[in-house]
Amino acid sequence: MYRKITRENLKKWLTGLKAQAEVLAPAKVNGLWTYTEFNSQELLRGFQNTRLPPKGLFLESLRALFGWKSQGGSLQLNPLSSLDGQRVIFGLRPCDARALRTLQPVFAGDYPDVFFLQNLSRTLLLGLACQVQCEGSFCSEMGIDPQDSADFDIFFREFPEGYIARIITDKGNILAGESAFEEASAEEWKLARGQIRGRREKPLFDLERVQVNVLEYFPDENFWRRISAKCINCGICTYVCPTCHCFDLCDLQMPGQGVRFRCWDSCAFPNFTKMAVHNPREEKWRRYRQRVSHKFNFFHQNFQTIACVGCGRCVVYCPVNLDLREVLLEVSR
Amino acid sequence: MNQRNEFPEGKNIYQPHLMEIIEIIPETGDTKTFHIQFVEASLRETFSFLSGQFAEYSVFGEGEATFCISSSPTRMDHLEFSVKRVGRVTSALHQLNPGDIIGLRGPYGNHFPLDKLKGRNILFIGGGIGLAPLRSLIHNVLDNRSDYQDITILYGARSPQDLCFKYDLEAWSRNPLVKMITTVDVGDKDWKGKVGLVPIVLEEIRPSPDGAVAVTCGPPIMIRYTLKSLERLGFTPSQVWTTLEMKMKCGLGKCGRCNVGPIYVCKDGPVFSFAEMRNFVSDEF
Amino acid sequence: MPDRVQDELIAMATKLFDEGKVDYFLGYKKGTLKFKTSPLIASHREELQQLWVEDFFAVNLSLYLKEIKGRVGILVKGCDSRSLISLLQEGQIKREDLYIVGLPCPGQIDPRKVADAAACEREELEEISRRGGEILVRVGSQEKTVSKNQTLLDKCLDCQHPKPLIFDYLLPGDYVAPVQQIIRSQDELRQKPGLERWAFWAEQFQRCIRCYACRNVCPACICPRCIVEENMPQWVSPLPTAGDNFVFHLMRLMHIAGTCVSCGECERVCPMEIPLMKLNDKMADDLRELFDFVAGVDLNKPLPFRTYRQEDPNDFIK
Questions:
Q1: Could you report the per-residue pLDDT of C262-280, keeping only the tens digit for each?
Q2: 3-state class of A190 per DSSP?
Q3: Per residue in C202-215, pLDDT tens?
Q4: Which CATH architecture has domain C111-151?
Q5: How much is the ipTM here?
Q6: How far is A290 from chain C (nearest CA, A)?
Q7: CATH 2.40.30.10 fits B17-108, yes or no
Q8: Residue in chain B nearest C231 by alpha carbon
Q9: How far are the Cα atoms of A14, A163, A165, B121 from residue A184, in angstroms, in the given order?
């Protein structure tokens, strides 16, 4: 089902939604693009993607899990509930939405993480087709179409008069409502698919070859040493990645009470696998090998999808320009 | 049109049950065994687990640590786990007293394959604190003795002071239906028993691999040599089982720490046969 | 940068390898993205062909001396050489293990500032190049000229040490400050009352995600085990709360007082664009005023926070 809407009316519609939900859209805060409360801001001039991925809105960088009070000898647990309240996020990109779908089975399954899953189920995802190939990105190589995606509730394409919307889910249909949008045709939707500025003619690498070869490269210590030599073991690639989800559990104790938190962690950190007696990934090359092998093969063995969406953030924000695309290209050969 | 799934409101997987410490038994200079019981009475009836499974134990304010459940599911009046003091949470545990409250999340992980042990000769090989996970299985097996054939327990520690679960060792050595061999790497003036490294003593005993299953747990170096000895005695990798140790944190297969290749030790293990371990992609454990 | 500098660099680095004088050479190679330079850690002479000296800001290579052991050839700009002096003073490296090659630097261009000056988004910049004393920017099909004052990194605007203070070999070029006679105006923030400054930093540290890039890229942060990784006792919580972030950053700063040479890498790598150099610059000014000390300049001047003298005042001990 397709609808269309002018720019002005889209702003009005989003503003109207604030009565029933928290509405987030991209805006520059402290100079960085981020998803923040929609305040009729001039939508998205110059916006490609946010600095930090939207995963932080679902898997928070700091999340209180439960608390306790200890008085005298007794201890009492304070359960904490997951957040509720409807949320609408406008302006998400196909790569980031695919990343959320990738994270979902990790946090569902035998032990469902109520905090993450509630965040997912209370949020409507409104996507926006890309018009520019982000620097460093390789989404197409990862099987993602920057201009078409079924991972949203509603997916928008810009066209001269405003936006054409493809309504994907029932929730999206209800959200769109009766009056804000006009009918549109499949033809208009197809016509609104535009050129993507900066798009590469040929793919950088073959993902299937990467997936197979990365296992073969596993025992090659020299390869991984050479590839990871300039890595400085910070967590930037992990924290800007929309699919990375490793976390730590940590207690914060104050007099008489405390809280257990879940916070982001990174397999790039030297102490990630440290045990009392030994650290199986003491050396940097082992950690980098784990990172690439896990994302491009092991995760797929468990969840039938590659844990990377090619958004390019790790490529752009790595302080030493350790370019994952170069690594994947070499692995694919 | 697609309907996105609604996820049911469920319990908080990160929140532990409250447990009271009933008794603390010092095993060696740096190891203690804790006997614990659920604060909430109804859980005492409903909680169940299988030998080989582990739990995450909380000292509220310090953190959580992973230990196997070392008591047997055939004896459910309380639960037991053993702790060697090596870091923050273990040191905090060692400071506690009976009556103190800790947390327990679990049981997690897979379990020893009892069905593969039934009707067979079982060879238990333990070293040091590695006897803790084996102990759950040993008591389990001994409590259903007629389901199994010959039972041999070979246990060793560095010195007589490092022997754990001495009360069990005594009981097993007095049990006519069990062959118990205790050994130490280095004796002392009072030690009257066997002296020798576990893999060497194993080859002295010469257990037959026919109709047998071996279950082993101990320090990595002991395991490595024990496996070599078992191979020399004719045991195949699918006849030998162990529990693996990799840093486990959440126990739920989510936090990523225990991930080795496609395996999550906390979900696909920690019990593995050596045949399975041969297929592991990496040597990182 | 003139081609001959690059050719000479490749030639002399190759000679170092051929003569068996070094096991590694630390230099730069072309980055894989616009306006990026990548470090090059060469262990074989063939890799030296990739050596590249480019116009955009380049990592302070002395950070790799923390992990690379052996004899190392290293390329340094004037500012980077100060890190070498600090590391020598702290006994982290041995002079005889280093072969130091000096690089003339025309000032490092900050693409963020270029985007501001050209009134566009950083992603819209197509090309940045130098023409004489000015910077040429292409956005789409439009070309604009912007001045060096507007577009060089803050630290380059009052470059005090364009020429390496320690070296074995100087590559040809002019070792002069890129912008003459400009002193960066004092940070306005310093004039604000305490509560306002507190509020400013509280907001900044709310955004810190504890990626530790600032710590890991810093040549002055040399602890093999950072205090944040210590959990018995837990001095600083690993949780990214504003309060704990505050403690981490201030503690790190105090720890490197006297060895931080204001190379600016911490601020450059921060993915949240926290203006960390405001703190480092203030600390450097305080050190100069209180201790008459400037980090990484004089190999023989004792480090104020690593040295104890009998006559140090101790009347504050009650």
A1: 999 999 999 999 999 999 9
A2: helix
A3: 999 999 999 999 99
A4: Roll (3.10)
A5: 0.93
A6: 18
A7: yes
A8: B88
A9: 19, 10, 8, 74
